[in-house]
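Contributing new records

If you add data, match the layout below exactly. Sequence lines come first and carry their own label; structure lines follow with theirs. Keep one chain per record. Anything else will be rejected by the validation script.
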Amino acid sequence: MLLALGTAAIVLVVLLWELARPDALRAFAVLRLRVQRIRERARLRESGQLGYDPGRERRAEQRARELLRSCIDEHDWAMYRDLGFLRLWGGLGERAHAAGASYAYLIYPHRPIVAYVPQTGALLNEYCVAFPDHSRPYGSARLPDSDDVLAKWMALKADERCLIEQANMHLPGRQIDPEQVRRDLARLTRWERESGAGATDIVRAA
């Protein structure tokens, strides 16, 4: 009897976790980003400087860039610094590595994640996902640009399948001009060639 109850309890816990997992993963992706802002708010409140400050947005973005740089490798940081977006190789395909990944993502700040085929440049889908900053006491609830990119990067790395399943999926062109994406892919190929990183991306634009 006790064994049956114990087994039922374990099954119940697993089912509850599966139901709560998407929200838990999304919360985890922004938790690290929010902690820094909560600490900053506490410091400003103690010093009486919580009023409007026109330079706060710029400083918030600078801190976000520093945090992003500390979380990704030097090649990816240089890519974001020079091009304004990140590429992340897809992990759900059969060959999920840079030399022959079956698909990849472009991660833009405050724009959909774009999936594409590296070997051809064919665009697959747009995935719309938002990470609002509820810790901010004023103004826009949007994260700074670099924090938004980091939140998407972290969520894809933590559980790619979950993020894709929870995102609003659209065909290419819903929010981002496909020609702009193709230009960005061409810029990425040229950047990697000129930076000595190797031409590991598209060979032609679809």
